[in-house]
Amino acid sequence: EEAGIETNTISLNHVYKHKNFGGIFEEHEDREDKNPKQAFIKSSNNIFVQIGKDVGIKNIDKLSKEHGFYEKVLGFDSEQNGNLELNVKDTTDDSGDSFQAYIGQKTRITHIESISIPTIVVNNGVYVKPHILEGYVDKDNNIIEKIPVERRRVINESTANIMKNQMIQVVNSKEGTGKGAYIANVELGGKTGTSTRIEKKDETKEYYDGWFVGFFKVNEKYYSMVVFVQNIGKDVNASGSAVPIFKKVVEENYDYLKKF
Question: What is the pTM of this model?
Fold first, then answer.
């Protein structure tokens, strides 16, 4: 949706009709027509396949890379990096692989890569690269060197505000897939994701993981967080696994963070 807004390839007022894709993209679907905001709040795979087709796989891939996906973030030797499991140059926008990518199923990203999703939104469209060290000091705690923080604009501020409001509605709306993270009087938003992955080791197996990437506000300061729950099973989704953990972490740390 971000890519569609940025490239002006979708209209937020356009209502997409539920479409039959031969029996796929039907999980938890209510079959109602939706605009992009409604599809985002309800996490409609069926509608987002159609949105993705309008936006195009190349536009989505380009913006994903600008988010820092598919490359190491912290720069550690043992750090993993994600990848898009298709060749963008040779893949058409209406192919089966592209349809899967439009709902994230062809996208491999690490947890630290995914934190850029809420961070860019609350920073008004600016990517701030995660880092661990602020600098180096001598034995007397004098600063020898400060490590520069990498910042770059990824999306327009207007786009960031649209996505921020939608992420808040994912939590605040009665129909939102993240409503289980709602905390009264706390600004909190995010996006659920229930991913399916195929692993081939001794035998080929299908696994399911629950994600919730989001943000919350304490004393006029935003914090970003990702909760990842591995191997949740086929009958559980992100709403029932990652979302309650996100809420618990915020509740237990909220008063502590007020000190900063």
Answer: 0.94
